[in-house]
Give the backbone structure.
Amino acid sequence: MKKSARDRIFETACELFYERGIRAVGVETIAAEAGATKMTLYRNFPSKDELVAACLREQARESWSWWDEVIAPHAGDPRRQLEALFEAFGQKTCGDTRGCALSNAAIELHEPDHPARGVAVDHKTEMRARIGDLCREAGAPDGTLADGLFLLLEGAYVARVTLGEDGPVRGLSAAARALMTCALDGAQPSRSSPRASRPA
């Protein structure tokens, strides 16, 4: 079935914004590559800013769909869900050649009132909250582990872009496990540890 003009414009815009950058792509380019006109574009999207926001909302939706699919098999085991997220991200190679589209947008669109920047910030805020929820459910005493895992995940996006699949991203899962071991297993001293008892 032939795609509608709106769908062609939307898909083309999402691809171009990700591949070339938001500022570098104009509505004329989007319309031309989608086989449409500027008038058709503006009939479906009030402005370029709103088109960018729509693309990022779709990116966020796909991200949460992936997230839910990864953790679903480990329901009831928050620590294993965290491990699964980092394992899956470390193995995820398609679609991330230029990093995270939402992080890229937040950097490129520095205006606080830009609708697309709001989508990106909201997504990252929710990601931090979701990681925080899993860490608390796993027994983390405070938010230190959650923030550490969040920073690790965000850094992995950049490392993948700059140093490729054979760079530090290969150790992402091991690094996440190390943080969790330190925060969760190392939070309480072992009963057999000399530090756990005092001489009479």
